[in-house]
Structure formats: structure tokens, C-alpha cells
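Researcher: Batch entry, complex prediction.
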Amino acid sequence: MKRFGDVIRVPADKYAEYVEKHNNIWPSIVEMMRDAHIQNFTIFHRDGYLFKYYEYTGDDYEADMAKLNANEEHQKWLEYTAVCQQPVDSAEDGEWWAPMNDIFHIL
Amino acid sequence: MKRFGDVIRVPADKYAEYVEKHNNIWPSIVEMMRDAHIQNFTIFHRDGYLFKYYEYTGDDYEADMAKLNANEEHQKWLEYTAVCQQPVDSAEDGEWWAPMNDIFHIL
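Model: C-alpha cells for the complex:
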């Protein structure tokens, strides 16, 4: 199992919309994330930042993410929620959620 | 199982020390965290911020944390690593790690 942590901003005037959309996440999105071997997917919020944690339990991360990202419904979900997000200042050009480094964990 | 996410800062000149201390965490600390029903404890870093994720699997969180915080060796560990940390601006008076809200998760 590999852990991932990513960060992005949510403008104050978009926070309620972001939460409401996730309270009503499309069931197909949850299903395809599970099919992609993602578990314990959690989004936290504080001070205008969103922190995303998840674990990958499969054996081909690149292939699973490529399949997920190629799915049209998944693309629509990302566009639907992206209007509530802004990359952090340190994000690379074109980068959306910015990866954090796992510097310590207890299995 | 309940998820927790907390945030704190690490000054740039303290980052290497923080990582080195965690690379050599005292085995007793890991053991007492497990005894406190903490699992999947992970610390991420980016842009001077530390993000801590963990899960609590017991049935009396207050009691388990009180026991942990009353342990002298655990207190020494917290003091030993606290010199590398600074609370975020929005932290309450006396608050160290500042809690984030779990706004969405997939079990």
C-alpha cells in the first residue's frame, strides 16, 4: 500500500459549493475510484486549503490512474468540482492538486 | 474508525532536523501510539507545512489520548520534536497541531 497526500486551495466563496457537490458525489465516481484500487480517500479542509489523503493498493498505479483519467464521466466530475479549486502558489505549470511528500509513517 | 487531519508549520531551517528525528523515532513511541489504537499515522510535507493524518480504531478516544499525553516519555518526544514546529496563524491560543475538518471520505 502506498500513501498519497495532495494540497489545493478552495476560495472562501466556493467552499459551500465544494462540500455540497461532494455530499452528492456521483455513485459511478466512487465505484471507479474503488476499481482503481484507491481506498481511505479523504478530503480535509482548513484556512482555505484542501488536503487530500488516499491509499493505493493495486500493483500498477500508472495504469490505474490512466484508466481513471481517460474515463469521460470522471473527467466531467473533475471539471464539475474544479470550479471550486485553485492550485497552490508553488504548483507546477498545469499542475492541479500539488503533491506533498510522505516524510514519516507508521504502518 | 475515525480519521484525523492536523496541520502545523516547520521552519525551513528546522526541516532536516525534523525529518532526521522521525527517521530515528524512539521505538517506545511507536509502541505506545499503537497501544492508543492509532493506525496509518502519516506526516506529509510541502511549502513549510506539515500535514498529519491518522486513524483511531479504539472505542474511547479521550481516554486513549489522555493516557498517551500523561506518559513522560511521550511528553519528552513531543518536546524533542516541537522545537522544529510552529503553529499555523489560525491556531487557537495554546493549540499546537491545528485540526482540519474531514469534509469528505470514501470508506
